[in-house]
Each structure stands twice: as C-alpha cells, then as structure tokens.
Input
Amino acid sequence: MTTETTRILPDSELVALRDLAAQLRVDSIRSSGAAGSGHPTSSLSAADLLAVLLARHLRYDWSAPKAPTNDHLIFSKGHASPLLYSVFKAAGVISDDELVGTYRKFGSRLQGHPTPALPWVDVATGSLGQGLPAGVGIALAGLRLDKLPYHVWVLCGDSETAEGSIWEALDKAGHYGLRNLTAIVDVNRYGQRGTTELEWDLDTYRRRAEAFGCRAMVVDGHDLTSIDDALRTARTATGPTVLLARTIKGRGVPDVEDKPGWHGKALPADIADRAVTALGGVRSITVAAPMPAPGQPAVTTPARGPAPDLPRYERGAKVATRKAYGEALLALAARPDVVVLDGEVSDSTRTEAFADAFPDRFFEIYIAEQQLVGAAVGLQVRGYRPFAATFAAFLSRAYDFIRMAGISGAEIKLAGSHAGVEIGADGPSQMALEDIAALRAVYGSTVLYPSDAVSCAALVAQTVDLPGVSYVRTTRGSYPVLYDNGDTFPIGGSKQLRGGPGDQVALIGAGVTVHNCLAAADRLAADGIAARVIDLYSVKPIDRDALVEAVRITGGRLVVVEDHYPQGGIGAAILEALADLGEPIRMSHLAVRGLPTSGTTAQLMDAAGIGVDAVTGAARTLAAR
Output
C-alpha cells in the first residue's frame, strides 16, 4: 500500500464536502426513483469520491465544456449515471427539474447511460471496460500532442476490472507514462448478481495495477480527508495512478448497504423516503469548482484542411491497396491533426512509413485491438483525426468498441488489411470474412472497399473529415491500377468500368473481386455477351442509382461477387438497397460459403466460387435466361 502524509482538511471544508456527498446521494436516489429504474446503489458507493473530486480537484469551466485546458471526467462505470447527473446538477449545468423529471425518460438527454448528447460527456459509456481505454487516448493527446496540463479522471467499477480492456488500458498508460491519467476504482465488492471476483482484496488489486507500471494508492472511499489527499497526490504523479477506493455499495442507506440483490434497482418509495430524510433532505448546493489555467494546445486542429497532394500511380502498374493506404497517410500528414495508430502490424498495414516520418503523431498500441480503437476514440475527443489500422480479422476483437464509437458519434478512421481468402496461405484465422457485415451494422458508419491504388488513396483522403466511424478494407496482394490520377470517387458512388445500353448482365464487385469481374467480362465479350462491370467501392452508403440503372438495362440480371461470407456483405447491401424497387431481380450471389484453407490466392478464390471461372459461368447462365 502506498502511504502518504495526510493533510487535515478544515472542519468547515469537511462539513461542506459531507453536505455535497449527501446531496449527490439524495439526488441519485430521487432521480432513479422517479424513473423507476437505474443504479442508485452503484452511485451511492462513489458519492464521496465524486464530491471531493468535483469540489476540490476537477479543474473545469462548466460554462465552456470544449475549453482545451479543462480536465476530463469519464464514468467508465456508466451505469452510475444517477451520480454523474447529480454531479452536473451540483455543478449548476442542469436543473433539479431536469434531473428528477426527465432521467431515463423518452427524449431526455439524461439517458440510462451517459452519451455525448450532454456536452460534458466525452464518450458514451455503459458497455463496461471502455471508459478507461478512451481516457488513455485523451491522456495521450494531452501529454504528447496538446501538451496541456489537463488531467483525465476515470471512474471505474470493480466488476469492470474483469474486462481485459481495463488491463490493456493500464498497460498502455504505463508504457506511455501517462502521468495525467488517474483511474478511480470504486471497490464496493458487489456486481450485478453477487460479489465480485476479488471482493475487497485491495492488495491483489494493488499488485495488479503496479505490475502494469501504474502507481496504486489504496484509500477508504468514504474518508473525505484520505480521498482529498490521494487525489492531490495523483495530480502531481510522475506516471499513471490507480486509486483503489474501498467503498460500500448502497452507502448512506442502511436498508441496502452492503447487501446483495439491489444492483440496478430503484429504491422502493418507503426506503427512499427514509433515506432522503436521514441524509438531510433535498439540497440545492452549487459548487464553485476549481477553474483550469488558460492555455492553447500545441497542435492546431483545423476544422477543414487543404486538399492533400495524393500519391500518383501509373495505370496498369500492380500496387496493393494497403500500400496506397500507407502512402495516402503520408500525404495527409500535411494536416497536423492527423494521427495514426497501429496494432503492431505496421509493416503489413503499411503505416510504418508514417511512423518513421512522424513519430510524434504515431502511437504503437501493440497487439491490443480494444485499446487501439479506444485510444482512437479518446484522441478524437480532443479534435484529432485518428487513423487506426490492423488486420481486418483482428478488428473483430474490438467490435464492441467500434459499436460504442458509433453511439458516441466518434469520428475515427479504421483500416483493415489482409481481408478475405485473397490473402492466401495464412489460412482462415487471418481471413476477415465478416468485417463488411460488422462495420455496416455500426450506427453512422461508412464502409469503403477500393479496388486499386488510385481509388484507395482518394477514398482515404475523404475519410479525414468524414463524420462517424469510417472503415477502409485493403488488400494484401498487388493488382493493376484501373484509374487515372485525379479521378474522383465520391462517398456513396461507384464506377462503371465496362458497359453500355445493350448490356445483358451486370457484374458487381468491390476490392479484389472487381478484377475478377473485369477478366470475366472480357471472356463474355468474346462469346458475344455484353457485361456491365461496376466497382462498388462504397459499400455504405451504396450507389442505389447505379444499381437501379443496372437492373433496368440488364433486365435485373446481376452477378454479385464478394470475398466475404454471404451474410451481411455486399450482396446483402445490394438487396437492401433494391428491396423497394418493385422490379424483378435475378441475382447470382457469389460469396465465400465454406471454411477456407491455406492455398494460393487463385486456388482459394476458385475453391470459394468467386474466381474468374465462377463469375463467367454465373453470368452466362443468367444471360441465357
């Protein structure tokens, strides 16, 4: 246990802090009671911690939530939202009427778990294990980019520490020496269904945190003086701090204190009334919290940058889109707000060139994909444009983080390389065959799958200012450049590479399968069959107009070819787009339907039924109908 010399608070300040903590407890009880749901006992345990933090250590201009020098407060245990919203009332930014009258109600910004619908909330939380990884990203921005003295405070639950992402976050916090980050763990020993794994074994918590390079401090989470001293020490630490606070779930309400079965339940009216009375009744304390020092970030983050000088490629030259992705990042580096993260595969994703040229804006997250996405979410909180890359298959490890990024409205740019059976001999563990479906399902996402280097560079450049989660799927192998430098590729568009008014069938691909479609079209032309070839590089949003035209020109004969499982991929996207067309569609859907093995690219595509022979055969069959 880390011991510090305790500084005794004056009696007047202790009284004020006790009153504030009591108000936070009362308001947590009242708001969840009025809603008839919520997590009051999880809020009661941390009320003392937040009272001291709010009144004495959180440097925040509540009238200017975007002020660059503000501290950041993240409730990783987002279910304790009654406490967070009670803090906002005590800060004077929401009214008692809003707190008690609208919490968890339809249309309210005080949702069951916090989201950035509130300007004082940086990221959506509630899926446990996510607030601390985002806090690492914000702290990285403060220490390495902004170079401002703001501090990042993250309230975590003890049950939440069973999530591996918490330890990924502490590992990276220790690795990067994030002295501006403090994780406050509310160790109240109860989870949803009973006691937690470690209960009140504070020594084990401490040893685990220290093993990741963090300074651990164990305190009584209801001793205001000890809390104050620990938070003061954390503010001046030389590395990341983990404050392990031993608390009692339901503290302040004897009927539920340290008792199982109360998680996620509003208190019955009789218990609530007794508790509010015992806690001194309803108060309207407004705290004059410490103000941050003035300052500006070292890096200017423009709202919109100049058009980048993109790399140029010779038509017909064989270039992998992953290579074009890396070279596009170098071009985007002219913008100081562009930052790049990688999951220890930068030699494959081709982000290594950016890392070599701009090491101050490159963050190696190693093989920790949850933290990779979490850090990107945190960096964008501070106005940066984060590009995070790994193998497409490994993004599945971080899918919940990507999903929550959509809920946060986070602007992050993801790249997945080595997608599909095209990668060859590495085998199915490395083949992303689900990623398009997964990323399409994320709220507000954009999914792009370029077929050549020119289109890849142009699309990557457009994502830099694109709202929401953007995903670019890149290819391992090198394929011919199809387009001229300077060609445009609007998001939501497509390219017609072959075709005319007499087309009998349309061949629709994206990424690597576009090249198979082109080869098939040449074979069909030799047989007298006119085939339209569409490069559907924008999978979401999709070019419905081009698809409708293809249906009407060809009589509904579509061959869709994708290096992806059939569920939720490109074929599904096309059928969704055409569902209300009201015209007959005869679609042959070529996708990976079995479990791939190792082999060459050609062998695997042929075995999956997405090679040139399969495309040609499917088109001939449709054209004959």
Q: What stands out?
A: The mean pLDDT is 96. The CA atoms of residues 403 and 442 lie 6 Å apart. Residues 11-35 form the longest helix (25 residues).
